[in-house]
UniProtKB/TrEMBL annotation:
Pfam families, per database record: SNF
TM spans (from-to): 78-95, 107-125, 146-166, 255-273, 285-307, 327-348, 369-389, 428-453, 465-482, 494-518, 539-558, 573-598
Keywords: Amino-acid transport, Glycoprotein, Ion transport, Membrane, Metal-binding, Sodium, Sodium transport, Symport, Transmembrane, Transmembrane helix, Transport
Protein name (database record): Transporter
Organism: Anopheles atroparvus (European mosquito)
SUPFAM superfamilies: SNF-like
């Protein structure tokens, strides 16, 4: 490819105009299979000394033909897969309550600003670099070998998230199957909970009637605030069998949850059995079905008494919070994890595109739909919670819900249990929607790990890679379905995903926007799509997005608090394990940087380091044509 100024390839001094870039297919030396005779005039191609136009023998310099790499059957499959990946559980249960805690409607304003300055630029950038190179999230750093540790660190985080994400899907399946019972099991109090339980539903059993009989006594009135809803007790005592702490161990895996875990991974395996060819076909259902359910739930929610009050409560701005830095921090983190940026998934998915696919259009569509879905889910959920507040006689919608995992498995089931007409039907729809959303996101994360494996070991078949990951996922996921599993999930998520991902995201931006360079990225885009990114994209990539991410990291470090789970302080050894996971992820950066320098050609250490910052000889589109 010609255009030396910004791409490190052979340059003829021509201006950067689409169509003037030329990829020269290397000639194979006669009788020397796999050896290419390449005319090189730039040290950036060889990673060594200038060749002054001489012929250099390069082994393995020719990229494999594009035909050897899977591709999406249709461009719309890529779009649907991105929607299924980005629109996940975070949109349905996290966004509404992050908004509620941070100013309601006023939170939406910082969120949209952050989406424009961080979310969209990174999403588009990752789509460009993945499609241009046809490389997965690790090999894409052939553009700057010294930064390859970013890819390995992101793969580690993705693997960690994949293991516990499947355990949430297993819990969702447990609730889905329980929803087919004639009486929702979390709607009533078990006999063993007498004296400590308030029924969540309208159905009364013997325990509930006895409780109601005591309701006029002063003792009951005093102790009412200390009682727990049947939905919460069902989640903690029946589903999780949760321990009060993990000082004495985490216990053995629950049999039912383990079986549901196996079922979840089996469905992921079937979806990925043929790589993107099979997952692309499944993406239509995974992307569209949740919207059908969400629309049904929204229509039903809006017809419930008190629903309008809940929606107004969700959208009403609290302007005094808009200048609070915590609101902006919440907006960045929500946008970050909602879109799945900087996890390697987007780079992986776009690497299976055809070279001329319009990723600009797709990036705009996906980021817009993701925001729309969050708002739609917020209106749906708060319509239901507004009805719940109406039924319970409270005017404060914010006090009828619990956050975190309890949001999906306590508050929503409790709200559904109070439906007077067919609560089972709405429960089935809700948990089926959650499960489909989870499958879509987990398929993307598993595909990312699969792609890294197949890029390193091309002879490994899709079904083999998927089977290995599924078996490992079941074994590791069984940790999270133990009585102490939620403690481990919180620990691993904090140290292995949330914290480290922010650091790796900044490293990715440095690698692509500064080491590789925005100018190179723009020329690559122009060569691929026929138009040069506007000043908006260039400013965001070079300055605005990296600076915002750096400010967020500093704020995160300044406000760092010891991790706790339900006010439980972890044992010292648990914090030690957490920091070891965090350190292992960060150590990928110096380890692979040192390896890249070691593998470079050059007479001095300085020359080796300089060459490690430059693209390798084979960098570029994988198809020589």
């Amino acid at each position: 490819m010609e255009g030396r100024d910004n791409n490190g390839f052979i340059g003829d001094g021509s201006s950067s105009v689409a169509g003037q870039f030329r990829w020269n297919t290397p000639a194979i030396a006669p009788g020397r299979p796999g050896t290419a005779t390449i005319q090189l005039t730039d040290v950036e191609l060889t990673g060594g000394k200038p060749t002054n136009g001489e012929t250099v023998q390069q082994h393995s310099a020719i990229p494999e033909p594009a035909a050897d790499r899977d591709q999406w059957g249709k461009g719309v499959e890529f779009l649907m897969s991105c929607i299924a990946m980005s629109v996940g559980l975070g949109n349905v249960w996290r966004f509404p309550f992050v908004a509620l805690e941070n100013g309601g409607g006023a939170f939406v304003i910082p969120y949209i600003i952050v989406l424009l300055l961080v979310g969209k630029p990174i999403y588009y950038m990752e789509m460009i670099i993945g499609q241009f190179s046809s490389r997965g999230s690790v090999k894409v750093y052939d553009m700057a070998p010294i930064m390859r540790g970013v890819g390995y660190g992101q793969m580690l985080s993705t693997t960690i998230v994949t293991t516990y994400y499947a355990s949430l899907m297993a819990t969702t399946l447990r609730y889905l199957f329980d929803s087919f019972q004639s009486i929702l099991p979390w709607a009533v109090c078990a006999d063993s909970w007498a004296g400590s339980c308030i029924p969540s539903g309208g159905v009364r059993n013997a325990t509930a009637e006895a409780t109601e009989a005591l309701s006029n006594s002063s003792t009951f009135a005093v102790s009412l605030s200390n009682r727990t809803s049947s939905a919460e007790l069902y989640f903690t005592k029946v589903v999780l069998k949760e321990l009060d702490g993990i000082d004495d161990g985490i216990g053995l895996p629950d049999l039912r949850l383990t079986l549901f875990l196996v079922l979840s991974w089996s469905l992921v395996l079937l979806t990925l059995i043929k790589g993107v060819k099979s997952s692309g076909k499944a993406s239509y259902f995974l992307a569209l079905f949740p919207y059908v359910v969400m629309t049904v739930l929204l229509v039903r929610a809006c017809t419930l008494p008190g629903a309008v009050d809940g929606i107004v409560y969700f959208l009403k701005p609290q302007w005094n919070k808009i200048l609070d830095p915590r609101v902006w921090y919440a907006a960045v983190t929500q946008c970050f994890f909602s879109l799945s940026i900087c996890f390697g998934n987007i780079i992986m998915y776009s690497s299976y595109n055809k070279f001329r696919h319009n990723v600009y259009r797709d990036a705009t569509i996906v980021t817009s739909i993701d925001t729309f879905t969050s708002l739609l889910a917020g209106c749906t959920i708060f319509g239901i919670l507004g009805h719940l507040a109406h039924v319970t006689g409270t005017t404060d919608v914010g006090n009828v819900v619990k956050s975190d995992a309890g949001l999906a498995f306590i508050s929503y089931p409790e709200a559904i249990a109070k439906f007077e007409v067919l609560p089972q039907a709405f429960s089935v729809l809700f948990f089926l929607m959650l499960f489909v959303l989870g499958i879509g996101s987990n398929v993307a994360m598993t595909s990312c790990v699969m792609t890294v494996i197949k890029d390193q070991f091309p002879r490994v078949r899709n079904w083999q890679a998927a089977s290995i990951i599924a078996v490992c996922g079941v074994l590791l996921g069984s940790i999270y379905v133990t009585p102490g599993g939620q403690y481990i999930l919180k620990l691993v998520d904090y140290y292995g995903a949330s914290s480290i991902t922010l650091v790796l995201a900044i490293a990715e931006l440095i690698a692509i926007c500064w080491v590789y360079g925005v100018d190179r990225l723009c020329k690559d885009t122009e060569f691929m799509l026929g138009h040069r990114p506007s000043i908006y994209w260039r400013l965001c990539w070079r300055w605005i997005t990296p600076l915002l991410m750096f400010v967020i990291l500093i704020y995160n470090l300044v406000t760092l608090q010891p991790l706790m789970y339900k006010q439980y302080v972890y044992p010292t050894v648990a914090y030690g394990i957490g920091w070891c996971i965090f350190a292992f992820g960060l150590m990928q950066l110096p380890i692979w940087a040192a390896y890249a320098v070691y593998k470079q050609s050059g007479k001095s250490l300085t020359e080796k380091i300089r060459n490690a910052f430059k693209p390798i000889a084979a960098w570029g589109p994988i198809d020589p044509a």
